[in-house]
Amino acid sequence: MTHRKSVFQRLAESFVSSPVGTWMYLNVLPPLDRRILRWTNGHLSMSPGQPVLLLTTLGARSGELRETPLVYTRSRQDVVLIASNGGSSKHPAWYHNIKKNPEVELIVKNGSGKYTAREAVGEERDALWQKALVTYGGYDVYKERASNASDRQIPVIVLTHAD
């Protein structure tokens, strides 16, 4: 299935995957998105044209609840997250949180609730990575940054609804 992106979506992806856009997306927009996603039950965010959810994890070290707005894609009933951290040499904090405490909560359009997280590996990881690129092409830019900075492979996380 080919997904045609609007001119606006392509321009937004180009900006967000730039160094300045990545910084804004990681540092400026999250506080706003936390509120907007909560108020609209995952239907609106500061990233028009991109699916964004609010992930709630238990802090790996602090034990405190942490909320992180993230772009996502779906694979059947599962939710897929890319732990890109904008291409940083380090994994994002939420990744460490779910590795220690895989039970999470999501506010997401058409599917809020409790989920269990696991890391995809091998062929599954590769297939989900390709699927995520359809949603947000900037992941390839982040992949290059991460490998240049530290040879880090960006994790792909699968969230399964805990029925």
Question: From the alpha-carbon coordinates, what is the Rg to the nearest angstrom?
Answer: 15 Å
Q: How helical, in percent, are the residues? A: 25-40%
What is the total tally of β strands?
A: 7
> Alpha-carbon distance between the termini?
29 Å
**Count of alpha and pi helical runs:** 6
Please tell me the CATH architecture by its name.
Answer: Roll
Spatial arrangement of strands, main beta sheet: 2-1-5-6-7-4-3
- As for the CATH topology, it is Pnp Oxidase, Chain A
Given helix and strand content, the structural type is alpha+beta
CATH superfamily: Electron Transport, Fmn-binding Protein, Chain A
Strand content: 15-25%
Question: Taking all residues together, what is the mean pLDDT?
Answer: 90
Low-confidence stretches: none
What summary fits the major beta sheet?
7 strands, antiparallel
For the record, what CATH class applies? Mainly Beta
Number of domains: 1
Q: Keywords for this structure?
A:
single chain, 163 residues, alpha+beta, Pnp Oxidase, Chain A, seven-stranded antiparallel β-sheet, 6 helices, 7 strands, 25% strand
Q: How would you portray this structure in words?
A:
- The longest helix is centred in the C-terminal third of the chain and has 14 residues.
- This protein has one domain: Electron Transport, Fmn-binding Protein, Chain A (Pnp Oxidase, Chain A).
- The chain has about 160 residues and is of the alpha+beta class.
- The chain starts with 6 loop residues before the first helix and ends with a strand.
- It is globular and about 35 Å long.
- Helix content is about 40%, strand content about 25%.
